[in-house]
Amino acid sequence: MIKRLAYVLWLLATLGLPAACARVGATQGADGRVPFRMDITDVDGTAIISWEGYTEGYRPGATATMRVAVWNHTSRPWNSRICVLLLEPRPSSGAVFLTEQSFTLESGAGFERQVTIDLPAGLRSGTHGLALVTHKPAGPFILIVPVHVGEGQREAFHGEWPQEAALQACPASADEKPIAERRISVRGVEVSRTSVVIRGESDLPAGACVSTELWADGTLQSWWPLDACASIEEGAWELVVPVPESEALRSGVRYMLRAFEKGGPNIVATFPFDLDPPPTPGL
After folding, report:
1. Domain identity same for 135 and 266
2. Plot region of 137 (φ>0 → left; ψ -120 to 50 → alpha; else → beta)
3. Same domain, 169 and 189
4. 233 DSSP assignment
5. At 190, which CATH number?
6. Is 103 helix (H, G, I), strand (E, B) or coil?
C-alpha cells in the first residue's frame, strides 16, 4: 500500500500544472497487475484527456495496450497527435518513441481509442517513465507514469524524468503552435457605397473563424454584424459586409477595424483607416 501511495503522490506532484487536476485509480486487476487511470481537465474546461493502462506487466519485445480519450471544448478545431514514449530516469535523457496517432477534433467533439505499443526487444528491465505527450492549443501537455519493465517487483520512484526529451521526441507541428505565438492580421480594407471588404491573414488552425468590429471616431458601430465571421483557409481570410444606405462610410471620420477570434483567446488585430483624399503634393 505504501508503494502504491508513493506512485499516486509522484503523479500528482509531477503534473504540477495549475490548469490541470489528476485522479489516479490503483485497484489491483483480476490478472494481478496494478492499473492506473488519469483524468486530466483544464481549469477552463477547454481540453479533457483520459488515460488508462498498467504500471507493470511490460516485457521487452512484447505488445501492450492502453486506452486514451480526448475531448475538445475549445471554440475552434484542434489538430494534433498523441505520442507514447518510454523515458529513462534522470540523469539520463533517453526517450524511446513507441507510437503516435494523429487526430482532428471539431469544437465539442471527442474520441476514445485503444492504443497499442510494441516494446523494443532490447529494453532494459527496471523502472521507466511511460509518457503520453500531446500539444493543446495552449501548449504542450506531458503525462508520465512510472512503470516496471521485466521480471521482479516494482519499486516506488522518487526521481525525475527528462520531460524535454519527451518534447523533442514528439515536437509540435506548425498547426500546433501555442496560442501565445499565434496571430491575426488585417491586410487591407476596401470600401464602396454598398459594402466593406476586409482581407487578412492568420496562423490560427484552418476552419477557425475571424470576427470583426467597426469603430468610428471611437464609437462602436451597432449596425456592423458582430455575428458574421470569416473562416480561415490556407492562412488567409476575407469578409464582405453589406453597408445599409443610411450607414454609408464617409470622409472626415477616423475608422478603426478590429479583428479577433470569436470566443477564443485575446488575439486581436486593429486596422485604422479613413476615406479622406490623399494630400495634394506640394501643398
Report:
1. no
2. alpha
3. no
4. B
5. 2.60.40.10
6. strand
Tens of pLDDT along the chain (283 residues)? 334 433 433 343 344 443 444 444 445 555 667 888 888 876 556 678 889 999 988 999 999 999 999 998 877 778 888 999 999 998 988 899 999 998 888 888 999 999 999 999 989 889 999 999 988 766 788 899 999 998 876 677 888 999 899 988 998 765 555 555 678 999 999 999 999 999 999 987 777 889 999 999 999 999 999 889 898 888 899 999 999 999 999 999 999 999 998 766 668 899 999 998 877 766 5
What distance, in Å, lies between the first and last C-alpha atoms of the chain? 88
Say which amino acid occupies 165.
Answer: A
Radius of gyration of the chain (CA): 26
Q: How far is CA 27 from CA 12, 66, 108, 110, 224, in A?
A: 17, 16, 32, 27, 58
What is the model's pTM?
A: 0.59
